[in-house]
Specification:
By secondary structure, the protein is mainly α. Helix content is about 60%, strand content about 0%. The chain is flat.
Length: about 110
Amino acid sequence: MLSSSLLSGLRTARTSVMVTRNLAAAQKVTDPIQQLFLDKIREYKQKSAGGKLVNPSPAIEKELKTELEKLEHRFGGGPGVDMTSFPTFNFQEPNIDPIDDQAAKK
């Protein structure tokens, strides 16, 4: 009896903490540093649309190209193969001789 009331109290406390956190997140930011952080995150999200690098230097682009070439050489990529996408797998059903055909031949 005591344990069930204790668990019930813990559940109520946990729910109230979650509601408080959600309400706090929904309110407008009043801290200027926090607002600046959120603005920078939104700006970064816009610049990185499409999975591209944000403000890459020529050295970084060259390094990325070199690493992708190493991966192509090591894992069988080639011209026209996108090494940045997740691979697709094609599993074919094996040919299995039916049991009925083997029994009829005997």
